[in-house]
């Protein structure tokens, strides 16, 4: 795992980095499997080809995926692992700083033998800033920390600056999926994403954001939220054609 002293200063969109003590099996995965599928933190000014992260693959054959998906803050990894299993031709990168969540995803990867998963166990912005233009087909931001207090609003991952960044990285027609069970966060997203020139909201009626997409994979957190009376909202945005003039050149987000 990365040295804690190397993380960027505030504001950041994540909270704690470690939870309860891990079982020996999870610790072993962190020691043995993670180094084989981890994405190193890019050096300042370094560019990262996301397809190259999958060569060589876990199998003997060299595999370079044509499509790359990325999940920011994958939690326990249930969604990411299920998507990877359902789409073995897609390379999926997961970003997560919570050690227990990383260990959970590693268990899924190990048990299912998923060779199309890579993990960036660090602040997602370090990797996003190093990726080339128009390299991602889909980005997931599912149930992020809502930072409900007004004074913490700048910590929310969905922000004008990060929307600019995601608009640069997504291919035309690519999809940004956001899910939340927090009404304040939903209002925050709808105050920023639909008006961004690089994105088009794919909702035509209220049911479109109350019903999950056809290929949706439920998570433990989502199930808990529903059980506790917090129905999730599912927001989908399509990357507009680049004729809008947005996202033509890299515009790194300052994180130091």
Question: Can you tell me about this structure?
Answer:
There is one protein chain. This protein has helices spanning 24-32, 34-37, 78-86, 99-112, 124-128, 160-169, 183-192, 207-210, 220-227, and strands spanning 67-72, 90-95, 117-120, 136-142, 170-180, 199-201, 233-239. The protein has nine helices and seven strands, in the order H-H-E-H-E-H-E-H-E-H-E-H-E-H-H-E. The protein is globular and about 45 Å long. Helix content is 29%, strand content 17%. The relative contact order is 0.15. It has a single domain (15-40, 49-244), classed as Rossmann fold. It has 256 residues and is an alpha/beta fold.
Present the secondary structure layout.
Layout (H helix, E strand, L loop, with lengths): L23 H9 L1 H4 L29 E6 L5 H9 L3 E6 L3 H14 L4 E4 L3 H5 L7 E7 L17 H10 E11 L2 H10 L6 E3 L5 H4 L9 H8 L5 E7 L17
Parallel strand pairs: 1-2, 1-4, 2-3, 4-5
Antiparallel strand pairs: 5-7, 6-7
Helix pairs in contact: 1-4, 3-4
């Amino acid at each position: 795992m990365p040295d804690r002293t190397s993380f960027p200063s505030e504001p950041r969109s994540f909270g704690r980095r470690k939870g309860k003590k891990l079982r020996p099996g999870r610790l072993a995965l962190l020691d043995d499997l993670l180094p084989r599928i981890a994405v190193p933190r890019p050096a300042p000014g370094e560019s990262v080809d996301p397809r190259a992260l999958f060569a060589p693959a876990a199998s003997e054959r060299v595999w370079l995926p044509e499509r790359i998906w990325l999940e920011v803050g994958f939690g326990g990894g249930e969604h990411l692992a299920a998507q990877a299993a359902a789409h073995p031709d897609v390379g999926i990168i997961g970003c997560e700083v919570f050690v227990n969540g990383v260990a959970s995803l590693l268990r899924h990867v190990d048990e299912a033998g998923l060779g199309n998963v890579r993990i960036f166990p660090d602040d997602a912005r370090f990797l996003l800033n190093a990726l080339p233009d128009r390299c991602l087909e889909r980005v997931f931001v599912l149930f992020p920390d809502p930072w409900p207090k007004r004074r913490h609003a700048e910590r929310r991952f969905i922000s004008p600056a990060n929307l600019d960044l995601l608009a640069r990285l997504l291919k035309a027609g690519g999809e940004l999926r956001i899910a939340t069970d927090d009404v304040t966060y939903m209002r925050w997203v709808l105050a920023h994403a639909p008006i961004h020139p690089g994105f088009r909201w794919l909702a035509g009626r209220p049911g479109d954001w109350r019903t999950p997409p056809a290929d949706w994979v439920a998570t433990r957190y989502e199930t808990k939220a529903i059980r506790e009376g917090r129905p999730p909202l599912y927001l989908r945005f399509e990357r507009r054609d680049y004729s809008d003039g947005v996202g033509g050149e890299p515009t790194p987000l300052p994180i130091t």
